[in-house]
Protein 1
Amino acid sequence: MIVSMIKKSEDSSQLLRVTITSNKEIAPGVYYLSYQRTHDFLAGQVIKVSLDENNPPRIYSICSGNLDPETSILFNIKEGGLLTPKMARLRPGDNLLVSAPYGGFISSGQSEWWISTGTGIAPFYSMIRSGLGNKCRLIHGVRSESQFYFQKEIRSVMGEHYMTCCSGEEVPGSFYGRVTDWLSALDELPTNIKYYLCGKALMVVDVRDLLIERGIPFENIMAEIYF
Ligand SMILES: Cc1cc2nc3c(=O)[nH]c(=O)nc-3n(C[C@H](O)[C@H](O)[C@H](O)COP(=O)(O)OP(=O)(O)OC[C@H]3O[C@@H](n4cnc5c(N)ncnc54)[C@H](O)[C@@H]3O)c2cc1C
């Protein structure tokens, strides 16, 4: 077993020391980091991550399936950030402190629309790998084509229900513009399903406002904001 307990509680404020099994740069400045799975979790949940006990942890969505042998996160380097520039330099065999998974951004298992930008794809990729992608539609917005993480795998599961929007360049097969532009162009939006939004605050607020304007009840909108 490569995991040693720092504290025994499963409370998310307690951190466990884990050993990194891989940390790959999958797009410029964007990393997919994995360690051997320590806990059961529900797709959509998050973990706290830190390099050592002296630094405050940051929160990351789990970006792997609930039965995958490894737990993974997807993160981008924030210049001047406390954690991500150092985390990007970690290699297999290095240690990281992680919490037990927690959080309530959980799929209902019914038909849903999932809307994300950038690394906000993480909880939805976890849901897809956990077998929850069949009844849902995923809209992913990015600035450049290299940021359509896991595109092939997602397309193979979701087919036409996976919509990509690229705002920074024209990409064949993708909508040229933001997710809000794509949503605005639709004649109708289903009002009787749940919408799950994940990404930066600005996108989440803009999409939420748009959905409410289009008649989606507030209680049908779930949001996970990366602040
Ligand atoms: C629920 C949740 C889930 C999340 N999931 C993910 C995820 O899956 N993937 C992901 O990439 N991120 C995710 N995040 C964001 C993540 O937690 C971190 O905030 C992010 O990775 C940056 O961490 P950092 O320590 O490198 O940067 P920080 O130290 O937090 O700094 C962030 C930026 O602010 C600037 N800054 C810092 N301090 C100051 C200051 N005093 N004044 C002005 N500027 C300042 C820094 O230069 C940097 O550019 C999530 C956040 C939440 C809340």
Protein 2
Amino acid sequence: MKKLLLLFLLVPFFVQAQVTLFEDDFEAYTATDNVGEDTDIPATYMSYDVDGDGYNWGLAHVDNFTQPFSDYYVGNFITSASYITNGAGGNGGQGALSPDNILVLPMISIPEYSADVLLSLLVGSGTDIDFFSEHYSVIVTTSSDQADILAATPLLETTLSFQGAEFINVPLDGYEGQDIYISFRHFNTTDEFLLCIDNLKVQYTDTSSVEDLEAHGFSYYPNPVNDVLNLSANTAIDQVEILNLLGQKVFVDTPKALQQSVDFSDLQSGIYLVKVAIDGSEGTFKIVKK
Ligand SMILES: [Ca+2]
Ligand SMILES: [Ca+2]
Ligand SMILES: [Ca+2]
């Protein structure tokens, strides 16, 4: 019994899990070695060459360069050029460019019960200490069309003020329950060097709680449970999921009924998270198995 009480103290009552929606360090791809001159992006991404010069976002690897790119980026990263070194890469180099290149991430579904949705990424310049003033914006749209991306008000628009790279955070508030596209636009820059991106991540805090289910008359008993957990509501229970504290799903069912019994008799003693969905509302609560 003492052990059980200790577990209660260690686990906060409200479930406020940090959830990763999207993550990419670009290490799963093969970058072609024609730095800044190519269009080799991951298949799930899109890009637009708005200025139409044939140069666009492309994957590169730190080892593609004679300069020390590994000081700032790890392995593969994605880059758009405003200058291509003469003789570099496959096409012999082009000198100065005035890019207007858009990179669009795969669609991301932001859950309804989310808060503090945050985009984080490593963004920076090339390695030339005199050429780092790349201008870029971060844009969120619910369509991946070029015209819609160009018409949207950017969440962030800035010019790199330093040589090197840094991690930045861009809050994505107000997109709960929507499917979004995040874009990076490299533009309003001429004759600098490279804008580079690595270590993309989108995460959020899961705010679902059992209060959201109370409007549907939801209740459960007993807790702690020996054998059978009984769930009931006055609207059909759409889904029940049970996870252990390692996040492993140990039970899932879609009863579509006002009542549901869950057999706990084969589960080990300990704390479980029960996730219930009713008519678009979601709630999570803890159950102790004796
Ligand atoms: Ca990387
Ligand atoms: Ca490449
Ligand atoms: Ca271009």
